[in-house]
Design brief:
It is a single chain. By secondary structure, this protein is α+β, with helices and mostly antiparallel strands. The protein has three domains: about 120 residues, Trna Endonuclease, Chain: A, domain 1 (3-Layer(aba) Sandwich), CATH 3.40.1350; about 80 residues, Winged helix-like DNA-binding domain superfamily/Winged helix DNA-binding domain (Arc Repressor Mutant, subunit A, Orthogonal Bundle), CATH 1.10.10.10; about 120 residues, no CATH class. It contains eleven helices and twelve strands. The strands form two sheets. It has a seven-stranded mixed sheet, sandwiched between helices. Helix 2 links the parallel strand 3 and strand 4.
């Protein structure tokens, strides 16, 4: 999420570029409107359409990867009213086409635009990237170590008011990592500053969760030594408890264990140690196209809560929501409603 002043700069430039490119004018109705069905947008705007005024819920983001676009579609389903409009500093032609394929309207500061509504269909792409717009620098929470810290405090909200040493131990990072990440979270308005005699708390935990889940697949996950295998039996996970291997189920298997809802088609495992014994016992064969992936575990499994041999619900949510599979997205929202949301509401 960009800083608030930068948000306004990006939006102003994008709306001016929209008017210059299409002749359509737009106005801000209100910043941070009341939460819609899925999450709270940055701003609600109204575009003067050719037949009638059109309202859009705007998300202002710097987006440069397909995974982030997929995630945005996941948290903003097509049937939400008003529809989503992504506003970004710049959207490449490749990302523009991806947005159009997913039905995500967008506008950037260069004049690239996709709007589709009753009586309106505009698609402009390939504009030159602006060189004069300064975007807020990336903060510490957006690098791999920062994402580990954010994961730890989301999984265990009481850590927000713990010592930096406790946070570092749970996240599995160096002690010096924690302070800059916490300051970055404060600057981005994700958490309150710690008053002298008070306590930190999350300001908008679902926004923080979605920011983390959007970054996780491209920033942290690729660092986890991903290996792929194929199992001899399609339903082999049903009878296996991973505790003996110091490992945890993620993704679809985690959803099945947590919800008894989703029949797994793909298998994700996070392991604390070399998975040699697991591979041998379950007769897994190395296969780059296999349906089973094994990743290194990135948190302190002894300090962060988990249910038996399943990853913390926040990680199961992130594994599921980065896909565009309707079953996975429904399961992700169910995990949020049953496990994550209540934990945030009961934060210490």
């Amino acid at each position: 999420m960009a800083q608030p002043d930068t948000d306004r700069l990006i939006l102003d430039r994008a709306l001016d570029a929209m008017t210059a490119e299409t002749g359509l004018t737009a106005k801000v109705l209100r910043w941070e409107p009341l939460a819609l069905k899925t999450q709270e947008p940055d701003v609600l705007i109204e575009v003067a359409g050719p037949q009638q005024p059109l309202q859009f819920a705007v998300e202002i983001k710097t987006i440069d990867r397909f995974a982030a676009v997929n995630h945005l579609r996941a948290i903003w389903p097509p049937n939400v009213t008003p529809p989503l409009l992504l506003v970004a500093p710049y959207i490449t032609p490749q990302l523009a086409e991806r947005c159009r394929n997913l039905g995500i309207c967008f506008a950037d500061t260069a004049g690239d635009i996709y709007l589709r509504a009753p009586g309106l269909h505009i698609y402009v792409t390939g504009k030159q990237k602006p060189l004069d717009l300064k975007i807020a620098r990336k903060g510490r929470m957006t690098n791999p170590a920062g994402l580990k810290v954010v994961f730890a405090v989301m999984c265990e909200p009481r850590l927000l008011n713990g010592t930096y040493r406790e946070i570092a131990a749970a996240a599995g990072v160096a002690l010096g990592t924690v302070g800059p990440v916490m300051r970055d979270l404060e600057n981005r308005k994700h958490i309150t500053p710690a008053p002298a005699n008070g306590q930190r708390r999350f300001l908008d935990p679902r926004r923080l969760l979605n920011d983390w889940a959007a970054l996780y697949p491209t920033v942290l996950r690729p660092k986890l030594n991903i290996r792929r295998f194929r199992a001899p039996q399609p339903a082999w996970t049903d009878e296996v408890n991973l505790n003996r291997y110091r490992a945890f189920w993620g993704g679809e298997v985690a959803a099945n264990r947590l919800l008894h809802y989703l029949q797994p088609q793909a298998v994700t495992i996070y392991t604390c140690e070399a998975p040699t014994r697991l591979i041998v016992d379950q007769r897994l064969k190395a296969d780059v196209n296999g349906d089973t992936e094994i990743l290194d575990l990135f948190w302190n499994a002894e300090l962060l809560p988990a249910k038996d041999d399943v990853v913390p619900p926040i990680l199961a949510y992130a594994d599921l929501i980065t896909t565009t599979d309707g079953r996975d997205l429904e399961a992700a929202n169910m995990i949020y409603d049953e496990y994550i949301g209540p934990a945030f509401r009961n934060q210490a």
